[in-house]
Write a structure and sequence with these properties.
The protein is α/β, with parallel strands linked by helices. It has two domains: 124 residues, Udp-n-acetylmuramoylalanyl-d-glutamate--2,6- Diaminopimelate Ligase, Chain: A, domain 1 (3-Layer(aba) Sandwich), CATH 3.40.1390; 120 residues, NIF3 (NGG1p interacting factor 3)-like (Udp-n-acetylmuramoylalanyl-d-glutamate--2,6- Diaminopimelate Ligase, Chain: A, domain 1, 3-Layer(aba) Sandwich), CATH 3.40.1390.30. The chain is 33% helix and 24% strand. A six-stranded mixed sheet has the order 5-6-8-9-10-7. The mean pLDDT is 97. This is GTP cyclohydrolase 1 type 2 homolog. Keywords: Metal-binding. It comes from Levilactobacillus suantsaiihabitans. Homohexamer. Belongs to the GTP cyclohydrolase I type 2/NIF3 family.
Length: 268
């Protein structure tokens, strides 16, 4: 089969038009008309992931984070990123990225995160700004826990759920009760007002910076920052989804998730 067959099916699930303006989703490198036999699913496209793709015989890398957030200024192969592009071309590996369109998709990234946290009765958190998004296409989710807990206890639960060695708790009231939780995968700091507006007791998101952290505390919002890499939840989920589609459509492909941890941070 061709790459385009899998891509066309995926874009029914999470159309590129749902991506935020300027988000470079879609084909990153290669050709939609290239044959595909084995798919490697990953959060990030890094040199070590490319080496893994070559080792397992994958000819298609499907990533959540676009490989090319910024255009190359030159093709100097002394630059590791440029060398990675050259290696991909040399081995005829096609790369596709699905970012904020997957974040907004029903039964996509943020539903997976909400389910992992045990949230019930979830609704969308932030309306998508994608060009073709409808009012029910939203980034983030907000919902209720089955049983109330405390901010600190819930933060410790997040460490276990997301398999992180550490996280940052932004709160002056760690003993406060938690029933309602908002979550947004990736860098959700700019959207904390939406969590407040929907009466969340805790907001779970990544990449909170210093001054917004002060603003969140001043606003009375408890925030748990387990990092950006929690979006790696997409790896088993997308793998299962693609395997299901392959079975339904008799696609002659195999699909596997990367075995690598691409989180750049280590907690000491």
């Amino acid at each position: 089969m061709l790459v385009r067959e899998l891509v066309e099916r995926f874009e029914q699930f999470a159309p590129k038009g749902w991506a935020e303006p300027g988000d470079p989703v879609g084909l990153q490198l290669g050709s939609l008309d290239a044959p595909v036999h084995k798919v490697l699913v990953t959060l990030d496209v890094r040199p070590e992931v490319v080496d893994e793709a070559i080792a397992v015989g994958a000819d298609f890398i499907f990533a959540h984070h676009p490989m090319m957030f910024h255009p190359a200024k030159n093709l100097d192969l002394a630059v590791p990123q440029n060398q990675m592009y050259a290696t991909l071309l040399q081995h005829h590996i096609t790369v596709y990225g699905a970012h904020t369109n997957l974040d907004s998709a029903p039964n996509g990234m943020n539903d997976w995160l909400a389910a992992a946290l045990g949230l019930q009765h979830t609704t969308g958190l932030v309306p998508s700004n994608g060009a073709t998004a409808t009012p029910d296409i939203m980034m983030g989710r907000v919902g209720d826990l089955k049983k109330p807990t405390t901010v600190q206890a819930f933060a410790l639960r997040c460490k276990t759920i997301f398999h992180v060695g550490g996280l940052r708790l932004i709160s002056h009231t760690p003993d406060a009760p938690v029933r309602r939780v908002a979550v947004l995968g990736g860098s959700g700091g700019p959207f904390y007002q939406a969590a407040l507006a929907q009466h969340a007791d805790v907001y779970v998101t990544g990449d909170i910076s210093y001054h917004p952290g002060h603003d969140m505390i001043a606003a009375g919002l408890n925030v748990i920052d387990p990092g950006h890499h929690i979006e790696s939840i997409c790896q088993p989920q997308l793998t299962h989804l693609f395997q299901q589609w392959a079975q339904e459509n008799n696609w002659p492909i195999t699909v596997q998730a990367t075995t690598l941890n691409t989180d750049p941070f280590t907690f000491l």
